């Protein structure tokens, strides 16, 4: 170490993180032929932290996107609360839906007739869930409104036609104006028992909810026609209620019990989809823990790289100590080295993670075209696109966690460097 460096060491030794400490730390970070291997380890540490942070941000964003999209799609056609009759049949569905709609926070209360059926054409067949609804309710249904790809819903009540999902239309090979046949096992009562019922309907509209499971299953028909088809004369099987804030279902149920005069069985989206959304949350937590290991491995690289650097720079550290550098100054020099790797890696990973998350579906489409592949098939994942929602709070946790791990990984090698005895280090020189 030259005499010119000694003066700054002596003059700045009492000031924490002085310009002299930064100068020495940055010189040690630069690759030279003699300590190139140490710089390679530092480079791998940087890459590990960058990839770890980026992967964590992308994965948590995708899981958030899945949760939001599935919640939006499922609640867009299935409602937040479900009212079913008890003791007597739900023939007073009009009164009940009117009373439910008056509860504060309720956006929509839709009486429905639901039933499973088979659907077929000359080109294919499938099992479906038929829903009988009124036209005025169907056009306001969140999952259907704005999702009509062909045809119209105007005059739906009088058309005696049906609205089907786009994937179902592709399976059956039909378009608007074509005929489909619906079949149920329990039809008309005859002297020989109950006969199956089959009836042809015209496709009045084709919708695309964006969730393949729904687009392939749901068939909507006018409520009066559904009552006749399923032998539910002047009856509804369920009233689905949509609310402004699905997270406040307990308050809504209390208000609903006061507003509706007849006995009802009330279930909500939490009961019907609890296992599904709990599974998503568990998967997200497990993936977060597993991917955090990437950051921890990178932190071990920082430890090994700094340890080797300390061993390689033993003589330099001894000389620094003899010209006036304190133990604290040496400690801070090696802390700066480790923290610099962690901070730069975290920033690079943060930017890379945001870039990928914001353009994830475009990247998927590009890869599909480039490799003639089918990444994220809709029939397996229920969604027609790969969603990603960046949560500021989660990204902050990831960044802070990585910085803390990187700094903690730097403490032990830095302490070892500060603990070196300059006399013993220079004894054989």
TrEMBL record:
- Indicate the transmembrane segments per the record: 37-63, 286-310, 330-356, 395-415
Q: Which residues form the ABC3 transporter permease C-terminal domain?
A: 288-422
Q: Which GO terms describe its cellular component?
A: plasma membrane protein complex
Q: How does it sit in the membrane?
A: Multi-pass membrane protein
Q: Which UniProt keywords apply?
A: Cell membrane, Membrane, Transmembrane, Transmembrane helix, Transport
Principal cellular location given in the protein's record? membrane
Q: Where is the MacB-like periplasmic core domain?
A: 45-258
Subcellular location as annotated: Cell membrane
Kindly give the Pfam families that the UniProt entry links to this protein.
FtsX (PF02687), MacB_PCD (PF12704)
Q: What's a BP term from Gene Ontology annotated to this protein?
A: lipoprotein transport
Its family remark reads: Belongs to the ABC-4 integral membrane protein family. LolC/E subfamily.
Q: Which NCBIfam families match?
A: lolCE
Q: What is this protein called?
A: ABC transporter permease
Query: What organism does this protein naturally occur in?
Result: Methylocystis echinoides
């Amino acid at each position: 170490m030259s005499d010119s460096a000694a003066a700054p060491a002596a003059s700045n030794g009492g000031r924490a993180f002085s310009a002299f400490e930064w100068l020495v730390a940055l010189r040690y970070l630069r690759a030279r032929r003699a300590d190139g291997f140490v710089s390679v380890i530092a480079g791998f540490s940087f890459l590990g932290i960058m990839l770890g942070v980026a992967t964590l941000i992308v994965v948590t964003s995708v899981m958030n996107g899945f949760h939001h999209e599935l919640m939006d799609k499922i609640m867009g056609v299935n409602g937040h609360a479900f009212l079913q009759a008890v003791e007597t049949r739900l023939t007073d569905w009009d009164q009940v839906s009117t009373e439910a709609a008056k509860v504060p926070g309720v956006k929509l209360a839709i009486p429905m007739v639901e039933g499973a059926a088979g659907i077929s054409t000359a080109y294919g067949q499938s099992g479906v869930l038929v829903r009988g609804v009124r036209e005025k309710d169907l056009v306001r249904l969140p999952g259907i409104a704005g999702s009509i790809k062909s045809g119209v819903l105007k005059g739906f009540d009088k058309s005696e036609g049906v609205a089907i999902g786009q994937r179902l239309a592709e399976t059956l090979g039909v378009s608007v104006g074509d005929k489909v046949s619906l079949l149920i096992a329990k039809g008309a009562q005859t002297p020989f028992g109950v006969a199956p019922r089959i009836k042809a309907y015209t496709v009045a509209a084709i919708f695309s909810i964006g969730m393949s499971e729904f687009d392939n299953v749901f068939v909507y028909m006018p409520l009066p026609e559904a009552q006749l088809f399923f032998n539910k004369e002047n009856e509804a099987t369920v009233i689905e209620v949509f609310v402004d804030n699905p997270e406040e279902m307990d308050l809504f149920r209390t208000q609903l019990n006061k507003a509706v005069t007849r006995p009802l069985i009330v279930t909500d989206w939490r009961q019907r989809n609890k296992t599904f959304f709990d599974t998503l949350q568990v998967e997200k937590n497990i993936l977060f823990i597993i991917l955090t290991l990437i950051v921890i491995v990178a932190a071990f690289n920082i430890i090994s790289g700094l340890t080797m650097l300390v061993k390689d720079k033993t003589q330099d550290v001894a000389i620094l100590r003899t010209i006036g550098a304190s133990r604290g100054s040496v400690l801070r020099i090696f802390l700066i080295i480790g923290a610099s790797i962690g901070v730069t890696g975290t920033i690079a990973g943060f930017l890379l993670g945001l870039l990928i998350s914001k353009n994830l579906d475009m990247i998927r489409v590009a890869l599909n075209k480039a490799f003639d592949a089918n990444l994220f098939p809709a029939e397996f994942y229920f969604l027609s696109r790969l969603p990603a929602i960046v949560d500021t709070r989660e990204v902050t946790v990831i960044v802070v966690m990585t910085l803390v791990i990187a700094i903690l990984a730097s403490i032990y090698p830095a302490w070892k460097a500060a603990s070196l005895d300059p006399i013993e280090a220079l004894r054989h020189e």
